[in-house]
Amino acid sequence: MEQVSEIDRLPIDMLAQIFAFFSSYTDMAQASGVCKRWKQGVEESLAQRKSLSFAGWEMDDESISRLVCHACNLRELDIPRDRWGCQITDSGLFKLSIAKCVSNLKSISLWGMTGITDEGVVQLISRTRSLEHLNVGGTFITDESLFAIARSCPNLQTIVLWRCHHVTEGGLIALVDQCHKLKSINVWGTRLPVDSLNNLRIMNPALQIKL
What we know:
Elements: H1 12-19, H2 25-32, H3 36-47, E1 51-53, H4 61-70, E2 76-78, H5 90-97, E3 107-109, H6 118-125, E4 133-135, H7 143-152, E5 158-160, H8 169-178, E6 184-186, H9 194-203, E7 208-210
Parallel strand pairs: 1-2, 2-3, 3-4, 4-5, 5-6, 6-7
Helix pairs in contact: 1-3, 2-3, 4-5, 5-6, 6-7, 7-8, 8-9
């Protein structure tokens, strides 16, 4: 008679609690490949997570989207560029846009992701409805993305457009005009003229503009 190891006697929900302590996404991916029960445990563990940050990990479109798609209760998603080479492209954003959690995300950071364009950002943003905080600083987005954000994110409170050289006053006006809960915009390095910023202040005197 084949013996069953002690860990394999654990119920799936307890396995999920164990995997919740994993800080390495590489380890989680390896654990999910051990057997069907461990894969279930990893998926349940991800489903319980409210926040995912890929800072410090070498991740790509496929690995990021696979994990996020299992994190059905996710509220905060952080995909920053750093020295470890975390990367995502428009292809990855398209895959993320079909994840169940996207419509409930409160915070998204795509800081420094130079591989994304308006095409991917618009696709992802069009599926959000609860977004309050967005960081797209250091990307090459244009007003096209800002128009999509204005249409799809009525609850937006803060947005970081740090060094987004291709956004103009027109995109920012649409943002301030339609996102009535907006409290803060970071436009450092955008090269917008002072008159443009003054126009935004006239539209929303309480708006904090970070330069």
